[in-house]
Design goal:
This protein has 255 residues and is an alpha+beta fold. The chain has an 8-stranded antiparallel β-barrel. The radius of gyration is 41 Å and the shape is rod-shaped. The protein starts with a helix and ends with a strand. Keywords: Signal. It comes from Corallococcus terminator. This is Outer membrane beta-barrel domain-containing protein.
Amino acid sequence: MNSLLKACLAGGLLLAAPALAQSDEDDPYAYPDDEAARASDKARKDDDDAYERRRKLVDETDEFREAAERENDDGFDKLSRLDDPNLGVAVEFGAGLLLVDSARGDFSDNRPAMGVRATWEFGRSLENEPLREALFADLRWLYGSLSDGTNFIKGDTRLHYFTLAPAYLLRFGQSAFGIYAQAGGGLAYQNTGITVGDEETKVNGLKPVIQYGIGLRGRPALSRTLHLTLRIEAMGLRRGYANDFFFGGSAGIGF
């Protein structure tokens, strides 16, 4: 009887071993320490990839890479010259209406006028960031003419204004447009010819002139180093005892 029980027990153990072996999973058991290590390695790899992407964005050009290595007294290098590398020089052609103070007692003699203006944004030479886009100066030539009289007596007057005037621009947020106020001075050259019958008498003269006014200025970008410059303005010209006014606009190219 004992021999029969032993034989049955041994047979049962032999059949149970293959069944237990088939129920085991193919992958080894994952211990908690191994899972933590793999999660830490994955997080470290993600951080390295993110850092590499940021580094490539910062190092797009050699200019930014060199600027990042330089420091000023505050420990930071200003990148404004790299963001906008323009020289701050522009040339514009303008036209409008010139209101010449009338010698006949009227408010004005209104005539068309034209001119050329060179602009220098001298604020770019300063280290102060708010003043960089705000300060500029105009060197201007403006021309207008008058003609009046009869067939027997006639007068022709040609006016040339040469002025230099700094200005302060207040931008509309981060846009390319803003309003400005301007004041400066220069010279007014007046060439007058008075014709009586067949004889003409010419009178030329120079007078100091004070320029002042307000306007709207824009410099939308055409490329990284080229801008379109636009201007609408109302300007006063104090010429001796006479007060002339100019209303007009201009357009040009900025570098």
